[in-house]
Design a protein that fits this description.
Keywords: Methyltransferase, RNA-binding, S-adenosyl-L-methionine, Transferase. Pfam families: Methyltr_RsmB-F. It is a single chain. The chain has helices at about 25-50, 55-65, 70-85, 85-90, 95-110, 115-125, 145-155, 170-175, 180-190, 205-215, 240-245, 255-260, 280-290, 305-320, 360-365, 370, 375-385, 410-415, 440-445, and strands spanning about 195-200, 220, 225-230, 250, 270, 300, 325, 340-345, 390-400, 420-425, 425, 435, 435-440, 450-455. The chain contains 19 helices and 14 strands. With about 450 residues, it is of the alpha/beta class. It has two domains: about 25-160, N-utilizing Substance Protein B Homolog, Chain A (Orthogonal Bundle); about 250-455, Rossmann fold (3-Layer(aba) Sandwich), CATH 3.40.50. The strands form three sheets. Strands 5, 6, 7, 8, 9, 10, 13 and 14 form an eight-stranded mixed beta sheet that branches. Strands 2-3-1-4 form a four-stranded antiparallel beta sheet. Strands 11-12 form a two-stranded antiparallel sheet. About 40% of the residues lie in helices and about 15% in strands.
Amino acid sequence: MSHNIPAMSNATTSDDKYVQDIAVTTPAQKRALSYATTIAMLFDQVITTSMPADRIIGQYFREHKKHGSKDRRVIRESLFGLFRWRGWLNQLDSGQKHSTWFQQLSTCAMLEQHQWSDIISAWNEFAQWPQTRADQIQLEHKASLNDKLSAFATLSGITTSQITQLLPQWFWQLCPVVEAEQYAVVNAMSSRPPIWARAQTLSTAKVIESLRQAGVEAEASRYFSDAISLGHKSINLNEISLYKQGHIEIQDLASQVIGQICQPSSHEKWWDACSGAGGKTLQLYSLMSQQNVPITGNIIASDIRRKPLEELRKRANRAGFENISVVPWKGDELPVDANAFDGVLVDAPCSCTGTWRRNPDMRWLDDASAIIDKPILQLAILRRSAAAVKSGGKLIYATCSLSPSENEQIVQDFLSETTEFELESVTHPFTGQQCDMLTIWPQQADSDGMFVAKMRRK
């Protein structure tokens, strides 16, 4: 890594930087200072632009190809860790901005249990801890969230911190969680999820064998026959031949629940009304193809955004899926025929609170308006899309939100204004419970959060 210190973002002035007047005497300290400044620059950009951290860091690495794999890992994991633990880290205040910044980096490294000890040791020295040195605090390999709270209190001297502070207060107000489950929710949100994949054109056994031969950790899910966990390590998909050939797709396990609820038959006609780049569209087609009979049905995918639809076309071609077509939304008018589909999937735009585990920055970039502003649009989309369902057909409403106002309330409001649809009960795939509407919580199967409801036209 080059040790030229990059300029800070415009959000900080020369007199008010995270890093200033730090004396370095060793190569490790020099590397640690360089990392700290780069991370501070990226952190500032995320906060000031409100752009997703993965987009900010992706652009940075494309523009700075000098960084090796270790550099990328230190920068990326530190940046995301700072957001994961921000509810506690924001309580640190040394009285000097630069030492507070190093205290945050030092504490984050401890809580994340990072392994770059030489860098962390230098950050500990720069942090000027008044109570104790952070490198003297040892957490067990699989330390619990309570253990980490205790370690944070020992290091910082702050004894009033709480588990629930790791999620913003407005989350608890708009996504109610019974007290007995709050620890489990925060624990899941504070841990990195595995990468979930889906076998698409080969058997799950063949996919796993091929991935393991390529050195990729792979394990079959006990819930769905085509779901595969790829572990927690970063993977360069462009180096995986199975992915380049369309044999697998990356799709979170909670997202895969949606297709399993849809249960499309090979002869059915489906419309994915809010397809995005088509993860669920491809899953629907893949489920059709697993029935060992010729596919006589088809899928139409729609979205208001053209770029994701182009990506869907590429992914469908890569997999050799022929019976998928794309029809963009153009205004409020239905882009497909009314009363024409055996199934319509409405994966509505939402607050994405269910994906906070994977995108910890979003919990601090968003505010309550991310939830409050969505229901009017969600109900309008569901109402319009329902017109495409034929008699006896299925209407699936889904979001990656954990808020009842975006989920159950939308379905109830829709059903209250029409007598043409009725709710069908579904089975929770991870607990086996029967329920009218289904919310997947991140702690239930090591996944994102998701909501789905199944209705049928009478």
